[in-house]
Amino acid sequence: MRFDDFSLCAPILRAIEDQGYQTPSPIQAKAIPAVLQGHDVLGSAQTGTGKTAAFALPILHNLFAEKDPSQQPTRKPRCLVLAPTRELASQIAEGFQAYGKHLPLRGAVVFGGVNQKPQVDKLRRGIDVLIATPGRLMDLMNQGFIDLSRIEVLVLDEADRMLDMGFINDIRKIVAKLPDERQTLFFSATMPREIKILADAMLYQPVKIEIAPDKPAADRVRQTVYFADKSLKPDLFAKLFDSLGMYRVIAFTRTKHGADKLVRQLHQRGIKSQAIHGNKTQNQREKALVAFKKGNLHVLVATDIAARGIDVDQVSHVINYDVTHEPETYIHRIGRTARAGHEGEAIALCGPDELGNLRAIERLLGATIEVVGDRPAWADTPNVPIMNGQQGRQRQGGEHKASAHAGQSSNARKRRRKRGASKQASPKPSAHSSASHNQPKPQRRRRNKPGSGVRA
Fold this sequence. Notes:
alpha/beta; 14% strand; Rossmann fold
């Protein structure tokens, strides 16, 4: 299959060719036709699978095909994409810009940590696509700078991380401001119970897409573990950096304080590094990422939330400096290497109090991670508990974990389904209809009334 098999409009196909892409990824091959036909989508795929293009390409096509934006002197956004972090929002915006560069469509990205005036100026000039983090979007809505009354498509990307970060109440308020009839695209790397409940409340008869590798971790990632007490980790890190020829490394810590501390320890050992986390300004984070991409910075130390959405080619190593208590998070971490056909290595530095975390990860992987170096006696301790890291965990700014629960009663769900089933789908003509998506688009259904669709 090739991208031109989807019969996307010529300007988009030209932009794809400019990017050097010819063959869609699995999630793109399944999602693009569904989105083109107007279906709601529930997509589950690991990081690095091409999710942005999976929704950006068909959305741009539909926006361009259905209405001529040049006839709108003051445009209100027709597509809203919600992302949990600044980095991911920026990455998505870059994707829309690249794929839509030959189209007469305009977009804007809004997130916190920077002056809002340039963002407001773009909104006032009129846009078609809005990419936003929930916090800044709520701020601008409350100030009267954003009108969501014409939204036709809502995209929630990394929905599981948004719940982790405590954005569920903001999402509920945002959804209440959207038109009842819309297309909703819901993407999440993992599908815990809370995410399934949230998706069921927001989606109507979605096309379900699950792209899961045969193994949870990429086959090209070599995974190893070194056992070391916490006090010995900085020296071990420096030794491995020198002996293994590391050149572009992402190291993960549990907290912001731990990230800053590790940067200081690495500097003392002559290793150039910087930290990115929620206490850093957007300018500081962007400078660190640019230096890292250019090779002027050897180690990027990050917390899990700050690293969400970082897409850097040729990361040689991922260091799990703190072994996470969430096995799925480990998968996201090591997915930062071995991208785009390259190989990579993931190394965990495991202390005595993290042994239970390591074993939980191995249970998810269905395999034992290779041990390198000495194996202390404590490494064979039976029945060790998972260490969740709550003691001493900082709850600062927007980078915290919140208990989030989204629900809808079974009776409410039945009423919604019954109401939706009573309506008949009607064809929706498109100026660029083709054989690849000439089936009638489903009529957009009325969603739950404001305030009832998503509950905290």
